[in-house]
Amino acid sequence: MIQSRLFTKTRKEAPKDEVSKNAELLIRGGFISKEMAGVYNYLPLGLRTLNKINKIIREEMDAIGGQEIHMSVLQEKGIWQKSKRWDKTIVDNWFKSKLKNGTEVGLGFTHEEPLANLMKNHISSYRDLPIFPYQIQVKFRNETRAKSGLMRGREFLMKDMYSFCKTEDEQHKFYEKAKKAYGKIFQRLGLGDITYLTFASGGSFSKFSHEFQTITPNGEDTIYIEENKRIALNKEILKEKENIEDFKEKKLVPQKAVEVGNIFNLGTKFSESQGLYYLDEKGKKQKVWMGSYGIGPGRVMGTIVEVFADKSGIVWPEAVAPFKFHIVALDAANKNVRMEAEEIYKKMLGSGIESLYDDREAPAGEKFADSDLIGIPYRIVVSEKNLADGTLEIKNRKTGEVKKVAKEKILNSLLQ
Ligand code: ATP
Ligand code: MG
C-alpha cells in the first residue's frame, strides 16, 4: 500500500476524552476512530490487523471441526424469555428496541438461545451430533464503564463457538480440545507467554469455567498465578483455592489481567429451554449437551497494543501486523531514491510480501516518528546515503536492531 494514498493520517494527539493506551495509540496511528464511548470504527490499517487476528482464530476453530456461520444481531424476545435471560434483573446490559408495531426486540449480547433454537431444524438424531458451529460477529452490550478502548466496547466483535454433543462425556472431551485450540491461538497471536489458563466461576451452568487472561497493568481483572503449572485462579473464586488440587497449598502471585477468552460447559440449560433434543440409537429422546467458547478479536487487538507498545508507539507481533515491512524513502524528492524505493515495493508486491511504502516528501524525523507509531515489524530505509554505499538499512521495530544489507541481496534476505 502506498502511504501517500492512505486516507488516514497519523495524529499527534488522541481525543481528549480517550484515557486508554490502546485507543490512544490506535487512533493516533489511524487504525481506528471513535464513534462514541465504547464504539469504534476500524479503518484500513486497523482492519488489516483485525482480519489477521480473525484468520488465526478461524484456522484454529476449523481445525477442531468448527463450521462458520453468521447469525442475526436482531433478536426476538420470545426465545430469550424461555431461558429467562430477557429479564433485566437477570441480564442488565441488553440494548432493546421496538418494531413499528410495538413488538419488543433486542440486539444480541451472546447467541446461546437463538442458536439452540435454530438447531432444532438440524438436530433430530444421534447421527446429527456432535457439531460445532461458530461465528465472528458483532455483539452489543450496554456496558457501564467503557473506558478501556477496544478492550471494552458497547458494540464489539466476538468469536463465539457453541458445541452440541450427545453426552456429558462427549461435551467434556470437546471442551478439552477447545482449551488446547485456545492455547494455540494465543500463542500464534504472540500472547502465549503472558496468557494464563484461569479457573473462573462457571456461573449458573457449572462449577468452573476457564478464562484466558493476559497479564497487563491496565487489565480490569485480578488473577492469582501458579507459575510452575502456568495456570491461574480468578480473584472471584479465590476462596475455592484449597478445593482445587492444582492450587492447594501453592503460593499464588496476584497480577492485573484482561480476559481475552472464556470457555464454558453449559450443560443442558439452553437446549432444554429451547426444546432441543435428539433420538438415540434406540429411538429414545435425549438431552443435548452444550458448551460455549468466546474470544473478543477487538479486545485481543487492544490487548496486543497495551502489552507491546513502547514510548514511541505500537509494536505489532509479526503475525498480526498490518504489513510486514515499512519501506521509508528519505529524501523522497530525489529521483534515484524514489526509483529504488519503488523497485523494492514492486518486487515485494510481486512476491506477495506485504509492505507499506512511505513515499511522502516529509522530514526524516516525521517519517521515522510515524513509522514507530504505526509499529510495522521491519523498516527498510532508502536514502541518498544508502544509495551511495550500495546498502539498505533494515530496522527491527521491537529490538531496535539495525542491519545493513547489500541492496542486490535485499529481496533474497527478506524472503528468508
Ligand atoms: P468481561 O467479564 O470482561 O465483561 P465477559 O465474561 O462478559 O467479559 P464473555 O461473555 O465471556 O465476556 O465474552 C466472550 C469474550 O468476548 C470475552 O472473553 C472477551 O474477549 C470478549 N468481550 C466480552 N465483552 C467485551 C466487550 N465489552 N468489549 C470487547 N470484547 C468483549
Ligand atoms: Mg468472563
TrEMBL record:
The UniProt record lists the keyword Electron transport: no
Report the catalytic activity.
tRNA(Pro) + L-proline + ATP = L-prolyl-tRNA(Pro) + AMP + diphosphate
Gene Ontology CC terms: cytoplasm
For this protein, the record's Pfam families field holds: HGTP_anticodon, tRNA-synt_2b
Task: Pinpoint the Aminoacyl-transfer RNA synthetases class-II family profile domain residues.
Answer: 38-317
Give UniProt keywords alphabetically: Aminoacyl-tRNA synthetase, ATP-binding, Ligase, Nucleotide-binding, Protein biosynthesis
Record EC number: 6.1.1.15
Q: Does the keyword Membrane apply?
A: no
Q: Which GO terms describe its biological process?
A: prolyl-tRNA aminoacylation
Q: Which InterPro entries match?
A: aa-tRNA-synt_IIb, aa-tRNA-synth_II, aa-tRNA-synth_II/BPL/LPL, Anticodon-bd, Anticodon-bd_dom_sf, Pro-tRNA-ligase_IIa, Pro-tRNA_synthetase, ProRS_anticodon_short
Enzyme class, first EC level, given as a word: ligase
- Signal sequence bounds: none
Q: Which PROSITE patterns match?
A: AA_TRNA_LIGASE_II
Q: Which GO terms describe its molecular function?
A: ATP binding; proline-tRNA ligase activity
Please state what the protein is called: Proline--tRNA ligase
